[in-house]
Amino acid sequence: MKKHGSFLSITHHLVGTGWLFWLSILFAATPVSAADLYGLIIGVNDYQSFPTLDGAVNDSNDIADALRQAGAKQVILLQDKEADRDSIFSKWKSLTSQAKKDDVLVFAYAGHGSQEKEHVANSEQSGLDENFILANFADRGQTSYQRIVDDEIDALFRETPDLKILFIADSCHSGTMTRAFSAPKKFKTRSIPALNIENDALTALYGSKGRGGENVIASAKKGEIVNDRGVASNVLGIGAVADDQEVVEITDPDSKQPRAALSMAFAKVLRFDVANKARGISSERLQHLVTENVRMLTDGQQTPQFSGGGVDFSIPINARPPSAHEGDGKPSANAEVATTTAAKQPTEFTVFVTNVPHALAENQWRPILGQAKTTNNNQTANAIWDIGKEKVFSQLGDVIYDGRQQKIQETRAFSRAKTQAAAPVGGVEIAYATKVFDKLIAVERVKKRSEVVSPTIVLKPNDRLHRAGEQVTLETSNQKYPCLTLFNIASDGTINYLYPIQDGTIKDPLEVPMNQPYLLNLNVDPPYGGDHFVVIFSEKPLTGLHKELQDMNGGQKANQIEAVLDRHLQAIKHQIGIHSVFTGP
Q1: Which of 521, 522, 536, 449 has its CA nearest to residue 484?
Q2: H or E segment and range at residue 566
Q3: Could you tell me whether strands 506-507 and 502-503 are parallel, antiparallel, or unpaired per DSSP bridges?
Q4: pLDDT value, residue 423
Q5: CA-to-CA dists, residue 1 to 128, 199, 311, angstroms
Q6: What averages of pLDDT result for each successive group of 10 residues across the chain (585 residues)?
Q7: Whole-angstrom Cα distance, residue 228 to residue 216?
Q8: How many C-beta neighbours within 10 Å does residue 506 have?
Q9: Smallest Cα–Cα separation from 75: which of 86, 60, 97, 59?
Q10: What 3-state class would DSSP assign to 582?
């Protein structure tokens, strides 16, 4: 494994502490509006010799469509068997031959990744090359030709130093899930175990030259680790996950189609800025919003990795001629309130119901679903309700709520009201589930509001499952406004009002410093499951919202959150974000 991320290793090669300075000079050379945008987008579902995927083609379609909406001059889309090795190289060269200095080219790949023994000794710190696996690849003989190795991509990008390249790798090469699977469903991941290739067609192709050209051989002979020399200075790389994580295919909450989070997040952010008449997306904004969207879509299971590029690396948006008031290349001033009305759109929340005791009739459990709808597809369901085990699972397998655990009053950060246990029906308790599904629907709607206005929210030390007695810290930063509001939607739908509090010895200021993170320390105590912390930064104090949240505090009132936010955020400039915390005994 490499140290900085599990997408192709060329995106790891940071060139030292001075890289931001030099890249800011490089990428400031041409105004965003003068640059053209191109794209080579690859998606592979249909593998000849390896497990098929469901969402890679959807990902490639979405990115290609978003680039076209952004006014890309040309977008080439290669899928499944059409995405063969020779076509990828020739199409890329056709784009680079058309592009002029400082144009931006997007190279995006969605599909399986893997690793193989390094072709040149000392060329990789891990001793393994990383690769993209194409549809007709097999691990022996001539069909082993159908893959692309990291050194080759590095060499390809270095051929065009005057072009800016955004490299998106929605695949993985090793690792495990951040939290272990618990739900009764199967997940498709975009990785293949390390390969042992026999009669390698690429060895026959390159001979002694090495897959990355003579520079790989020369450096390796000196004992240097070639891939530590830094990503090409004209490249900004985005990988779907860190080394110890896997890319898992999830369900798009809007289309209900199989997807992966990185591609979905990138296309969403690009479309938003197109709609808000921005002239370009800076690398800083892209990194922030893509990271927050991936985290929300996966409940912290994935963390995208960024390497290379600089603060002035911008994706041009040429969807229409720019007007004078758009000269700063930023979204419109109303972008921070745009999602308030969008969040009102109905969110269809589906539940896969399983393990129903024979003694429990459908007319007993179905009304418990409330606003949620049943589905027969456990792969696309937003949640899984195992009635027999009295558990509700998220789409990604986390235990959201365990109906058999004792309800306990907790700390300020995790405070929950004591609830009265319902009488068992058919040998199991089911009444708890209504409030849990209300909570999950509320969470989805808050996520919708947060897609393009979220501050940075980080759970430290990590997003893994945290056990009883551990302490974690919720850290917020990148806020645009000084006034903080914070509350938790607990696993059972209880609202925990957390900030600002004016009660007894607690006298929280309405404003927090803009130039430093805000830290909230949390102790992990029962009851366990999925908590979701909602963070709001606003231009002025939301005293009316604070009063309503205080009145709701300790009550299972998640179904009221959407209306409350509508009342108090309408026409108020704000950021809103949501972060999940999963705990277990």
Answers
A1: 536
A2: helix 561-569
A3: antiparallel
A4: 46
A5: 8, 25, 28
A6: 34 33 36 80 97 97 97 97 97 97 96 86 73 95 93 90 94 62 71 89 66 43 44 87 81 90 96 90 90 92 82 76 41 46 61 94 94 91 93 90 67 36 60 93 93 88 86 90 94 91 84 87 80 95 96 94 96 94 85
A7: 12
A8: 10
A9: 60
A10: strand
Q: Note whether 535 and 579 are within 8 A (CB).
A: yes
Q: What is the pLDDT of residue 87?
A: 97
Residues in the chain: 585
- The strand pair at 74-79 and 37-43 is best described as parallel
Domains defined along the chain, listed by start: 9-319 (3.40.50.1460), 335-585 (2.60.40.1930)
Tokens 């022996």, located at residue: 140
Q: Are 493 and 557 in contact (CB under 8 A)?
A: yes
**433 φ, ψ to 5°?**
-65, -30
| Residue (of 55, 154, 64) closest to 108 by Cα position | 64
d(C-alpha 162, C-alpha 96), whole Å: 10
Rounded Cα–Cα distance for residues 50 and 502 (Å): 59
DSSP secondary structure string for all residues of 100-123: PTT-EEEEEEES-EEEEE-SSTTS
DSSP 199-250: S-HHHHHHTTS-TT-HHHHHHHHTT--GGGS---TTEEEEESS-TT---B-E
Nearest-5° Cα angle at 296, 370 to 461: 120
C-alpha distances in Å from residue 10, one per residue of 6, 52, 82, 247: 10, 26, 25, 19
